[in-house]
């Protein structure tokens, strides 16, 4: 039975058997999240968490993406028109925090592209299921932003500083890396989704539904993971780059490629993200979301977020002109400002 929680034409909700089913239905936009989708999804979670007939919630995307992120072009246009979308992000962050504390099994089938906001509506849930089609990334530093939607809550805890690497480079990973790093909890073949969903609807027994899963190996080889662990385990951004530079000079092609990626990213985003990940290690989910909302406010008031979106998505493929242009031009005081309290403007959480 279809249920109306809003978001018509963009997200569909059904109550079937023991499960609440959610399907993102913007395949042409790779299921990018709109404000209406975010609000509707949260209304569904509130209702189904209180409904004793709903044993679990299942979230999927239509087409070749689970969810490619938030609708950043809409955010760009709003900001350029003088109305930065603070409410969009505050509602999104409240949704991320709600998923993090959701009291029932929350199953996300990550069968396809998962980026940014797509991670925010999946990785904080109890069951993150990857397939051979999964392509995961937190690419925000490439558009002058930062890995928000709870990136500070899960990225710092991936083993071998893999989360710091993903945050600073925006690198794309697949099924084995997601499972091995802990981003995913289970791996299956895409063709198994229908059968598992049917069992969840019939019984609500999540343990039985995922009793038989796959164990793909890392796609990133052991030597590269060791380089990442050492290079991104340094105490400062500058020392990480120095370590990578040292290995690049000794002939490491991997270190050279990573450095090339970092050089293309927003210097401000790199500095802010490095500190975000460092501080997130000691914070609970709700405190991470409050910290991210402080950063978000300053990003929406700055330059690089709009410049990054212009270059990548408006003028497609243009070279962004970051301000400041170099890592050495971003002062500690500049970074501190992103983390300063907002006073009455702090994110409120239930």
UniProtKB/TrEMBL annotation:
Its EC number is 3.1.2.4. One of its GO terms (cellular component) is cytosol. It catalyses: 3-hydroxy-2-methylpropanoyl-CoA + H2O = 3-hydroxy-2-methylpropanoate + CoA + H(+). The keyword Hydrolase applies. GO terms for biological process: L-valine catabolic process. Keywords: Hydrolase. InterPro entries: ClpP/crotonase-like_dom_sf, ECH_dom, HIBYL-CoA-H. SUPFAM superfamilies: ClpP/crotonase. GO terms for molecular function: 3-hydroxyisobutyryl-CoA hydrolase activity. Residues 20-339 form the Enoyl-CoA hydratase/isomerase domain. It comes from the Bacteria. Pfam families: ECH_2. This is 3-hydroxyisobutyryl-CoA hydrolase. It comes from Paramesorhizobium deserti.
């Amino acid at each position: 039975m279809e249920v109306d929680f809003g978001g018509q034409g963009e997200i569909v909700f059904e109550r079937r058997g023991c499960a609440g089913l959610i399907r993102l239905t913007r395949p042409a936009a790779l299921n990018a999240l709109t404000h209406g989708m975010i609000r509707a999804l949260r209304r569904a979670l509130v209702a189904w968490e209180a409904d004793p007939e709903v044993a679990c919630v299942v979230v999927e995307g239509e087409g070749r993406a689970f969810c490619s992120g938030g609708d950043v072009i809409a955010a760009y246009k709003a900001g350029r028109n003088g109305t930065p979308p603070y409410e969009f992000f505050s509602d999104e962050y409240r949704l991320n925090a709600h998923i993090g504390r959701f009291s029932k099994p929350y199953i996300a089938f990550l069968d396809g592209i998962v980026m940014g906001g797509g991670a925010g509506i999946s990785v904080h849930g109890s069951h993150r299921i990857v397939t051979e089609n999964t392509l995961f990334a937190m690419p925000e530093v490439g558009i002058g932003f930062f890995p928000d939607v709870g990136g500070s809550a899960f990225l710092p805890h991936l083993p071998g500083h893999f989360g710091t690497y993903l945050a600073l480079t925006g690198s794309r990973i697949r099924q084995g890396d997601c499972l091995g790093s802990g981003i995913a909890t289970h791996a299956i073949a895409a063709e198994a989704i229908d059968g598992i969903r049917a069992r969840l609807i019939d019984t609500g027994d999540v343990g039985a539904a995922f009793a038989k899963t796959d164990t793909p190996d890392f796609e990133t080889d052991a030597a590269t993971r060791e380089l990442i662990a050492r290079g991104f385990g340094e105490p400062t951004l500058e020392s990480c780059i120095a370590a990578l530079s040292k290995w690049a000079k000794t002939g490491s092609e991997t270190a050279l490629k990573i450095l090339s990626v970092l050089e293309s990213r927003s210097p401000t985003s790199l500095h802010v993200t490095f500190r975000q990940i460092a501080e997130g290690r000691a914070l609970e989910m709700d405190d991470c979301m409050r910290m991210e909302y402080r950063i978000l406010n300053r990003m929406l008031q700055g330059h690089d977020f709009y410049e990054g979106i212009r270059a990548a998505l408006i003028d497609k493929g243009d070279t962004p002109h970051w301000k400041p242009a170099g890592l050495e031009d971003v002062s500690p005081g500049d970074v501190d400002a992103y983390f300063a309290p907002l006073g009455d403007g702090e994110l409120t959480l239930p």
